[in-house]
Amino acid sequence: MLTPLYSALPRDVVKAIFLVCLADGVVAVSYGSLAGSLGFPVWVPLALSMIVMAGASEFIFIGIVAAGGSPLAAAAAGLLVNARHIPFGIAVSDLTGRGWRGIAGSHMMNDESVVFGLSRPDKRQQRAAYWLCGTGIALCWPAGVLGGSLMGKLLPDPSVIGLDSVFPAIMLALVIPSLKKKVTRKRAGSGALLALATVPWLPAGLPVLVSLAGLMMGGRKNEQ
């Protein structure tokens, strides 16, 4: 299945997807090592990585439970943070397919696969980018979590090695070329300011939703 997906996309897009999946795997190592250092058995973060497969909510879940919170409260917080998946699901409904493909495609839906999928110029490339990125993360995330969980048993403080900084660094490198357009800079800047302004008042993860309002700012789409 991966070969036709690979051939449908330009080489630079495939490279970008590979880098993002690799970065997700590195962040998964950080998450798994954190869970291990907090005393969670390996099967807990591993099961979450395969069933939930949403990094932000998984970090929140283990953080709340490790602090003594109820697993139900932790699950509710994770659902709230991932509320953005509702509009995501509507946006990519044509890319996931029907029947079992729709179930599998919905399960692989995440920020990265949605962005790559919707950014391509035609439906064939959109489906290819969505499925290639989703499949890559579905493989890299649990693998990284497993490795990190085993590592966390040996490291007293996994944060000291800075694995959590790799993903945002790679995402920034991928975003920078898009900022050549004036309208993109305006919208990205507006969204960033909105997110920063709401950080003190909203739970973790929700400022990102607020930042989407920046898409309505910045002028005409064809502005350079």
Automatic annotation (TrEMBL):
Enumerate the subcellular locations listed in this protein's record, separating them with semicolons. Cell membrane
Q: Which residues cross the membrane?
A: 16-39, 59-81, 128-148, 160-179, 191-217
What InterPro entries does its record include?
A: Brnchd-chn_aa_trnsp_permease
Organism domain of life:
Bacteria
Q: Which Pfam families match?
A: AzlC
Q: How does it sit in the membrane?
A: Multi-pass membrane protein
UniProt keyword annotations, A-Z: Cell membrane, Membrane, Transmembrane, Transmembrane helix, Transport
Q: Which family does it belong to?
A: Belongs to the AzlC family.
This protein's name = AzlC family ABC transporter permease
Q: Which organism is it from?
A: Tatumella terrea
